[in-house]
Amino acid sequence: MPTTSEALEDHQMIGFVSSRTGYPLPLEFTRGNEVIEVTLPTRLSVSSVETSAAAAQKGFRLVQAPRYRFINDLEKGQAD
User: Fold this and answer.
1) Residue in 65, 78, 71 with CA at minimum distance from that of residue 28
2) Cα dist. 17→1, 27, 31, 55, 62 in Å?
3) Which pLDDT belongs to residue 80?
4) Is 63 exposed, middle or buried, given 0-12, 13-18 or 19+ CB atoms closer than 10 A?
5) pLDDT value, residue 69
6) How far is residue 60 from each of residues 2, 10, 18, 21, 44, measured CA to CA in Å?
7) Which is more confidently placed, 80 or 74?
8) DSSP string, the chain
9) Which residues contact 35 (CB under 8 A, 6 or more apart)?
10) pTM
């Protein structure tokens, strides 16, 4: 399990496609006051938050979503 943004380089993400650009949005991380954007190869591209969440729950793995979207899964130990 990656613990830093640098450790993600060998991973793929579920790409959430921007309706403005037509391209997947980068993952965003905050380190202090700095926002770090990481773009990984996409295993799957989606344009719906619910599709993104469903794909993550089915094992497509890396997705960036608000914590509240997966809080029940996290509490049950069903999400990493």
Assistant:
1) 65
2) 24, 12, 24, 14, 14
3) 57
4) buried
5) 76
6) 15, 15, 19, 23, 8
7) 74
8) ---SSGGGTT--EEEEB-TTTSSBPPEEEEETTEEEEE---EEEEES-HHHHHHHIIIII------HHHHHHHHHTT---
9) 28, 29
10) 0.73
Q: Tokens 């599709």 map to which residue? A: 51
Look-up of token digits 């579920």: 14
For residue 27, count other CB atoms closer than 10 A to its CB: 19
In single-letter form, the type of residue at position 53 comes to A
Q: Which residues pair with 45 in a beta bridge?
A: 15
Give residue-wise pLDDT tens across range 13-57: 999 999 999 999 999 988 899 999 999 999 899 998 889 888 988
